[in-house]
Amino acid sequence: MTSVNIRALLLFSAIFRVILILYGEWQDSHMEVRYTDVDYLVFSDAASLMASGDSPYKRTTYRYSPLLAFLLIPNAIIHRSWGKFLFSASDLLVGFFIRSILKLRRVPENLCTYSVMIWLLNPFTFTIGTRGNCEPIVCAVILWIIICLMNGNVLQAAFWYGLVVHFRIYPIIYALPIILILDSNFFHSGQKPFLSYWTAGHGKTTQSSTDATYHYNMQNVLTKIFTRQRVMFGLVSAIVFFSFTGLFFYLYGWAFLHEALLYHLTRTDPRHNFSVYFYHIYLHYEKEISVLEKFISFLPQFMVQLVLISCFAQDFPICFFVQTVAFVAFNKVITAQYFVWFFCLLPLILPWSSMKLKWEGICCFSVWMGAQIHWLMWGYMLEFKGKNVFLQLWMASLVFLAANTLVLIMIIRHHRYSPVFRHLELKSSKNSVKLE
Amino acid sequence: MESYHGEYGSLLDSDFQDFIARGLPSGLCGMLPDDLPRLSVLQQNLIGEGSHRLLSSSIRLNIEPKSLTKLPTHSCEVILIERLPIGVFADPFELQHLLQRGVFNNIAVFGDTNLELPSFLSNHSVVEVHMDVGPNLLISHKNGPYINIALPLHARYPPLDASGYSRVKFGAPDVFMCCSIEGNSPNQSCLFSPTGDGAELGSGEIVWRIPAGRKTHAEVVSIVTFISAIVSTLFIVLASIFYSKAIPYKTLKQS
């Protein structure tokens, strides 16, 4: 009966998204304010250019891989909403993958369904795909990589990883945790890795057995660092990344390299956004930023990523999640679409969270949303009322950073750390996790 | 306009004035009947608040009432050339959207159309708008019919200013009337400017106040930003270490 619920949920979500896309088309042609995201029009224009044999980079502000324009060529041939249907389908696929991942770890059906609902019924989620934002595709690929790793398909995971880093750069932050979990204790060739399953355990008692099987010390890292899986993953993903990059450089030249890669790596947009750095960047825009300044601004990001990876790598869903939240929070530019990057990972960690909806969950949600709304209020005053509220807006972004930090700490605090993989040779030993 | 920009590559006011004085085909207009509309007062207003506003240009026409019905035979259009100051820009894609909705006859932007760069990294741009002068587009007014052209404009991030605001001043636009005359060869058209025909700018100088950052904030903002980033980092690092279950000494405690 509960499996029908999932199907009903997916069906309802699909129908709802179709309705939204149709409504969006109506709003675009009848109202001054468009439903469709400005970026979608950029992708569509780039796709039309590509369809007529031109470079997609002739469209200003097109800052993505040519792959995206290629995927949207049917926009010019079939109908301009093709892309929205594609992105919404990816969004549904993400819901399906979330369920698959949780089922692999034997999470009970009701928890699975609630977790999938967190994604599918999130207003942010269904508007992002139906408005024509391409992030759901990236999320779907990331989750597929997780499924491949859990099933032991290292080669496939490597292929998709190389592709997704070419497409959207930010998943490079997952490289180190993935390398760390490709431990020879967990992965043997020809054998699927053993997964640790979900338990209803409260407190820390179930942790001791998994901790005993997990020897994370420097000796292991040094002696076993170049395992077959690690080398294969690194090589294959690098080959895929450089192949696609090389192919598009050959086809589109420096325009591709500048717009799709270098722009994202060096982007310092002085226009107001959620990042704490925006006002600092605007105030110093006329001056050259010294190497020391660049280093100081990169240091918090670097330190946080390193510590989070060291502490959580083996439980890689939570590792990916906290890394992504921190990456977005400490980035030089933050736009609302970046939030999807961690929203798609949130359902993967909820079954292992001891946080109750009342009142910790509601408190976290309110603090985070409240800080955003507060920022948006000042942003509105600046952009639409023309008042000089730069200082207040900057302080609102400090509050938003504080909110992100608080929510991150709360999630870490309530998370039941459970490494995904179990040692292969200890499967039959008395130290292995008992299945309940 | 396109040929001017292509040939000269420069959008400096002085160059443009020379071009108008020398190059435009206004000779034919002198031979035309008096029932062609003449441009008179031009009024400009900046409508809206904030970084996205409308530059509204109202052009009053002097035309004999009986000549109104004759307009289709001399198909005339008003050409408005707005030279935008450095601090503002027009979004070509937005204008294309308006063109598709039939708001203008034709519209084009020349020069710096970068939508993202701040003011001091940007350059001039020019918008050329063509609007039909047909009886259905003329708005009736007690002082005579007029045409309204509303151009959506956006503010760039201005250079820092101690007062907290940057003032962007708009110059007067150039307005022309282009009519194609029937009877003679179909391509014959004339272009004339109201300058010297008694047209005047009815409104005062247009000034757009754009919020600007204050240099005095620079030091405090930088220091507090970096301190907050470091403090948040410390909290996250401490929480990770304290609450993480991957630390060896914790396993020793439990075993």
Descriptive keywords:
heterodimer, A: 436 residues, 20 helices, disordered C terminus, B: 4-stranded antiparallel β-sheet, 5 helices, 11 strands, 24% helix, transmembrane (chain B), glycoprotein (chain B)
Hey, roughly how much beta strand do the residues of chain A contain?
Answer: under 5%
What is the helix/strand order of chain A?
HHHHHHHHHHEHHHHHHHHHHE
Biggest protein-protein contact in the assembly: A-B, 62 and 51 residues
* Largest sheet: number of strands, sense, barrel closure of chain B: 5 strands, antiparallel
Average pLDDT score of chain B: 73
Overall form of chain B: elongated
Care to count the β-strands of chain B? 11
Distance between the termini of chain B: 83 Å
Mean pLDDT across all amino acids of chain A: 87
Low-confidence spans of chain B = 195-199, 247-255
Any low-confidence stretches of chain A, pLDDT <50, length ≥5? 203-214, 427-436
Please state how the strands of the largest beta sheet of chain A are arranged side by side.
1-2
Count of DSSP-assigned helices of chain B: 5
Give the % helix of chain B: 10-25%
Care to give the gist of this entry?
By secondary structure, chain A is mainly α. Chain A has 20 helices and two strands. At the A-B interface, helix 11, helix 14, helix 15, helix 16 and helix 19 of A face strand 11, helix 4 and helix 5 of B.
Verbal overview:
The complex is a heterodimer of chains A (436) and B (255). Chain A has 436 residues and is mainly alpha-helical. Chain A has helices at 2-30, 38-51, 66-71, 74-77, 82-104, 109-120, 123-130, 135-150, 154-168, 175-181, 207-212, 218-223, 228-266, 278-283, 291-312, 316-329, 340-343, 346-349, 357-384, 390-414; strands at 194-195, 421-422. In chain A, α5 (82-104) runs antiparallel to α6, α8 packs antiparallel against α9 (154-168) and α16 runs antiparallel to α20. Chain B is built from five helices and eleven strands, in the order ααββββαβββββββαα. Chain B is elongated and about 90 Å long. The termini of chain B are far apart. The chains are: A mainly alpha (436), B alpha+beta (255).
